[in-house]
Write a structure and sequence with these properties.
Elements lengths: L8 H10 L11 H25 L7 E6 L6 E5 L8 E6 H15 L35 H30 L2 H9 L3 E3 L9 H25 L1 H5 L12 H17 L2 H17 L19 H18 L7 H22 L7 H7 L2 H25 L12
Parallel strand pairs: 1-3
Antiparallel strand pairs: 2-3, 2-4
Helix pairs in contact: 2-3, 2-4, 3-4, 4-6, 4-8, 4-9, 6-9, 6-10, 6-13, 9-10, 9-11, 10-11, 10-12
């Protein structure tokens, strides 16, 4: 449902206060404009798919907007009840630019991602797909170079979809209504460290949203497994159009990232972990972030791994097993940190995630405190959740 069809003055004021809807500016690099403009329909489709899957019939409209804001952040908002009531997920344009810039730098170079050796296509038309010269093989452009570039873009999209799913969890699980009781505002941002008297419950909501984002990301990948495994690539001739070539390489990239269970696990971990890693987290000092609305970034990075481990142990997502998931997740994290080191021309810096592992008992205590706080607010959330099913085990 388009936002124009459910015009709401309150929502319009909120969007304007955050920077307004994205509009290309003359000063913006063409690559940035293309990354944002081409992502908008993809993100809106993801949002609508989640709404159809989770929302009950007759519940509030849910819309997604890309907001002109250079911060690497996102927000969600719920208007007051009424004839044009609407839920909003707002992705800041800075987040999209940051994601695409980092993922291309991390994974598009010839020695950064093993996509195998694929034969070059017939003719010369495929060479019309332009990629940054820094990511072309020493002997000249190959189809493998283009595939890596498309894989990097698909991973950037996955990381942004993790962000969207985080915001969606805030909306779906009734978080906005709870925040309204504290702040008289139904707005939450993804990254924020402002002082807050309601900090304990706010951090519990962030834990809930992060874990839900991992869960939805994994479920989506597993649900598309057969499609990506068995996808039939178009047969291209020497005169293939640019549109057909883009479809071909996009399909190949999706097969690489989601064509096996191992690939789905890897892509899920990369999407969530790398989003937080892009924000350059400092090592955790072992202290609870008292007074802050959001937990420290290393704690949130660790939740991605813990959630994957938990889902494998529950056995509700075949064919995931703990023996497969945990070693693979750790391997993925090591690879991500190595890539960051290469891009930054330094050694791999694992101090942020290691700070949670080396202080595991403190991290577990942090989790315990937030889970206890979440249990306190769960009855309220149950009354205001948008979606189907239970919020967590033990709900009535």
């Amino acid at each position: 449902m388009a936002i124009e069809e459910t015009y709401n003055e309150e929502l319009e004021r909120f969007i304007a206060s955050k920077g307004g809807r994205f509009e290309p500016a003359d000063w913006m690099p063409a690559g940035h404009v293309a990354a944002i403009s081409q992502s908008i329909p993809i993100f809106r489709n993801s949002c609508e798919t989640m709404r159809r899957h989770f929302y009950l019939d007759g519940q509030r409209p849910l819309v997604l907007e890309v907001i002109s804001n250079e911060n690497s952040n996102a927000t969600c908002y719920a208007t007051k009840a009424g004839p044009s009531e609407t839920d909003l997920i707002g992705i800041y344009s800075g987040s999209i630019i940051t994601a695409f810039s980092w993922f291309v730098a991390l994974y598009a170079s010839p020695d950064s991602l093993d996509v195998g050796s694929i034969p070059d296509l017939p003719g010369e038309n495929w060479k019309s797909i332009q990629i940054d010269p820094r990511y072309v093989s020493a002997d000249g452009l190959t189809c493998s170079d283009i595939l890596r570039y498309f894989c990097a873009h698909q991973m950037a999209i996955a990381s942004m979809e993790f962000l969207i799913r985080h915001e969606f969890a805030h909306v779906k699980n009734g978080h906005l209504e709870l925040v309204n009781t504290f702040r008289q505002t139904q707005m939450i941002e993804m990254i924020n460290t402002e002082e807050a008297p309601d900090w304990l419950y706010r951090q519990a909501l962030e834990m809930d949203a992060d874990c839900n984002a991992v869960l939805i990301q994994l479920q989506w990948g597993l649900s598309r497994l057969a499609e990506y495994q068995d996808a039939e690539l178009p047969i291209l001739n020497a005169n293939a159009s640019v549109a057909d070539l883009n479809t071909y390489f996009r399909s190949l990239a999706q097969h690489c990232l989601y064509g096996t269970v191992q690939a789905v696990v890897s892509s899920t971990v990369i999407a969530g972990y790398t989003f937080f890693r892009m924000l350059n987290p400092s090592p955790w000092d072992g202290e609870i972030a008292i007074g802050k609305t959001h937990p420290p970034l290393p704690i949130r990075m660790s939740w991605v791994l813990v959630m994957m481990q938990t889902l494998a142990m529950e056995g509700n997502h075949p064919p995931l097993t703990i023996d497969d998931v945990l070693p693979l997740a750790i391997e993925v994290v090591a690879n991500v940190e190595q890539k960051f080191g290469e891009v930054l021309d330094s050694k791999a810096d694992v101090t942020a995630i290691l700070s949670t592992l080396e202080q595991q008992q403190r991290a577990l205590e942090y989790d315990r405190i937030l889970k206890a706080a979440w249990a306190e607010i769960r009855p309220f959330l149950n009354k205001h959740k948008r979606g189907k099913g239970k919020l967590a085990g033990g709900d009535d």
